[in-house]
Amino acid sequence: MLLSCGTSKTVRESKRVIKGDWTLTSINYNQGGTYNVTLLQDASKECFENSTWHFVPNNNTGTYTINNVGCETGPRYFVFTIQEIDPQTGLYDFLLKPTNEKYKSDTNYGFRLKLTALSETSMQWQQSVSVAGNSFIINMNFTKQ
């Protein structure tokens, strides 16, 4: 019996592709309607759209910067982990843990997202939440800069 330690080839390849600069171009939901959503317990959908993201996979760190006027602008720091779920479907768990000052006291604080699509030029995350007892999916669509 052979046991393998370390990261799978699929996750290593994903880290290579995710490396660099991305723009969060659009956010949409699996249900129609108008919603007042605060993403990552930080800002609204409108503030996050066109935010810039930088990923450094060799140490699993990154930043995102809110750029929109009328929003609390500036960089936010995080660490991330990509965990393989099912290599057949290509779906992953993506754990993003903010490291900004307001989160430093809570080391268990983070957001579990699904990395549902990743190519050399685009990426999609999905976050499942419950609204009035019903499943609600937030899609975050990125393009590589």
Q: What does this molecule look like?
A:
- The longest helix is centred in the first third of the chain and has 10 residues, at 9-18.
- By secondary structure, the protein is mostly beta strands.
- The strands form two sheets. It has an eight-stranded antiparallel barrel with strand order 1-4-5-6-7-8-9-10.
- It has helices spanning 9-18, 45-48; strands at 20-29, 38-39, 43-44, 51-56, 61-66, 74-86, 91-98, 111-118, 122-131, 134-144.
- 16% of the residues are buried.
- Helices cover 10% and strands 52% of the residues.
- The chain is globular, with a radius of gyration of 16 Å.
- The chain has a single domain, classed as Lipocalin (Beta Barrel), CATH 2.40.128.
- Residues 1-5 have low confidence and may be disordered.
- The rounded distance between the terminal residues' Cα atoms is 44 Å
The gyration radius over C-alpha positions equals 16 Å
Number of helices: 2
Taking strands numbered 1, 2, ... along the chain, how are they ordered across the largest sheet? 1-4-5-6-7-8-9-10
Shape, principal axes of CA atoms: globular
In the CATH hierarchy, what is the architecture at level 2?
Beta Barrel
Work out the helicity level.
under 10%
User: What's the total number of strands?
Assistant: 10
Number of domains: 1
By CATH reckoning, the class would read Mainly Beta
Poorly predicted residue ranges: 1-5
Helix and strand content put the structural class at mainly beta
Main beta-sheet strand count, sense and barrel state:
8 strands, antiparallel, barrel
- CATH topology, anyone? Lipocalin
Order of helices and strands: HEEEHEEEEEEE
Q: Averaged pLDDT, please?
A: 84
Strand content: over 45%
